[in-house]
Amino acid sequence: MRPVFFVFSFLAVMGLAFWAYRENYATQAALREMTKLQNEIASLREALTLQRAEWAYLNRPERLRELATLNFDRLGLLPLEPVQFGAAAQVTYPAPTILPGMEGFPDIDAPVSVTGQTDPLTGAEIAPSPVDGQFP
Question: How confident is the model over 5-26, as pLDDT tens digits?
């Protein structure tokens, strides 16, 4: 019985050694891949920084002003003036749409009046809310 136990123990140790060997190589491969990805990220960040600096250099106001002056006839650019901007009250908003299946629900944008209703806790009449400029 003892020799069988020794053989199984030896096989278990060999199996665990093989598993540890494979895990070691898999971990090393993952570390190499992670290092490669970190190097790629660093190079991409460096390239992005370079591109941002180049963009800032190309968008200098004096350079753009000079280009606009040189190409005035072809582009027809005019300087911005305050009268070219509108007021927020002039913006038109789309009308609310009712989704399919929502026909029975009340309009949430409609004014609500609570005239003649009583407070369920106190039993007192609720004063009307300021609807259409009417106050109590």
Answer: 999 999 999 999 999 999 999 9
Task: Spell out the residues 6+ positions from residue 112 whose beta carbon is closer than 8 angstroms to its own.
Answer: 129, 131
Give me 116's structure tokens: 């003649």
Compute φ and ψ for 118, nearest 5 degrees.
Answer: -115, 150
pTM of the model: 0.44
Q: How far apart are CA 93 and CA 44, in angstroms?
A: 43
The CA-based angle 109-121-112, given to 5 degrees, is: 15
C-alpha to C-alpha distance for 47 and 43, rounded to whole angstroms: 6
List, in sequence order, the alpha helices (H) in the chain. Answer: 2-58, 61-70, 72-75
C-alpha distances in angstroms, 134 versus 36, 48, 107, 111, 117?
71, 59, 21, 12, 17
Terminal alpha carbon distance of the chain = 100
